[in-house]
Design a protein that fits this description.
Aminopeptidase; 11-stranded mixed beta sheet; 13 strands; globular; two-stranded antiparallel sheet; alpha/beta; 20% strand
């Protein structure tokens, strides 16, 4: 099936082909793994809904062939990201086991749209609307949802980066840099893909929904950090909102993610989904952001319920998880500080202060907090 849009333009690796989507197929099983308008080249990777990682080995026209590489341990990656969140924000802000329901003061997420014309055909009648496509409306709903659900502040840029061509990311880079000056905890570039409806269709409370695909740029020094963020989001969403995350695509580019260790690109459905379908999924999925950044969920219900289930049904699992997080924090601290302090003595001093102040305060507050509440 061929997607024909009103206008075509030069195609760059890491960008999009608006004339026909790419299909990635498993070499061994001949199963279709994904369809996307992102230009696919050898070396690109994809983690599917079941956390199987595939790598593209060759491309013939718009058909790409991939080999299975491994099954990704997303839980371990999520724990590693949580440890870094603890290190960055401090134990109290991260809220491990405290069932917080409001974002910490100063918490901020920045949102922008590189491809400003992207729209949903069932809603607007066209896949391309200028100067602002439907993706801006979905971005506005996400922004409002984060504020209303957990009190997280957002800044949503309505800057247009037209035309939709190979230089769009250079133009949106200026917007991203401007947003980063506000010191956000995450930088999100929101798009919609071009693929058949079946690739993204799901349901939300019996109504049509549009799945999310997370996109990572392979050619940037922040790839590992961005990847851990993405896997942490997928891990949380897979438990709380199963079926919403289509997978994670690793494309041949940077997508401006070299600017921040917590910068991600989201494909919010396809041009064949409706805007309303994308919004239904995103107002749920987007709660994964404050959950993994701060341990915050609406009304604290998810956090309380998880902690209670672990305490009742898994014995010491909840406690052991915290122990592992503490160990990961100290390991991550040592590696991070070795780079920033550039001396063993500097690392030792920073670790000493960290253990003396933040860790002791964390234990004191945990003792006062008492056991987790049941989910209601």
């Amino acid at each position: 099936m061929v997607l024909l849009l009103p206008t075509t333009w030069t195609v760059f690796a890491g960008d999009e082909d608006t004339s026909q989507w790419y299909t990635i197929i498993d070499h061994d099983t001949k199963k279709v793994l994904m369809e996307t308008c992102h230009v696919v080249v050898a070396g690109d990777e994809f983690i599917d809904e079941d956390n199987s990682r595939y790598r593209v080995v060759n491309v013939e026209g718009h058909t790409a062939w991939a080999d299975f590489i491994e099954t990704v341990d997303v839980e371990t990656e999520a724990l590693a990201f949580q440890a870094q969140a603890l290190l960055r924000l401090g134990f109290l802000r991260a809220g491990v086991g405290l069932a917080a329901d409001r974002a910490p003061q100063g918490g901020l997420v920045a949102i922008y749209h590189t491809h400003s014309d992207e729209s949903y055909v069932p809603t607007s009648g066209s896949p391309s609307v200028t100067p602002h496509g439907d993706v801006y409306d979905v971005g506005a709903v996400i922004s409002a949802s984060l504020k209303n659900a957990v009190g997280l502040k957002t800044v949503h840029s309505w800057e247009s980066h037209l035309p939709h061509d190979g230089s769009a990311y250079m133009r949106s880079r200026r917007t991203a840099i401007s947003l980063l000056k506000k010191n956000p905890d995450a930088l999100l570039d929101l798009h919609r893909d071009a693929a058949p409806l079946s690739a993204y269709a799901t349901t939300v409370m019996g109504k049509p929904g549009a799945k999310v695909m997370i996109v990572l740029g392979r050619q940037n020094p922040n790839l590992k950090a961005n990847e851990q963020f993405a896997l942490a989001l997928k891990h949380f969403a897979d438990k709380e909102f199963p079926g919403f995350v289509r997978g994670i695509f690793y494309g041949d580019g940077t997508f401006n993610q070299d600017l921040s260790p917590r910068a991600l690109l989201f494909e919010m459905g396809s041009h064949e989904n409706s805007r309303e379908a994308a919004e239904r999924v995103m107002v749920n999925f987007i709660n994964s952001i404050p959950a993994v950044l701060y341990g915050v969920t609406p009304s604290g219900q998810t956090a309380r319920g998880t902690a209670a289930r672990q305490a009742k049904g898994e014995g010491g699992v909840a406690a052991s998880t915290v122990v592992w997080l503490i160990l990961l924090v100290f390991i991550g601290t040592a590696v991070y500080l070795l780079v920033t302090e550039r001396s063993i003595s500097g690392v030792k001093e920073r670790l000493r202060r960290f253990a003396k102040v933040e860790f002791r305060e964390f234990v004191r507050v945990k003792e006062k907090a008492g056991p987790p509440e049941d989910e209601t």
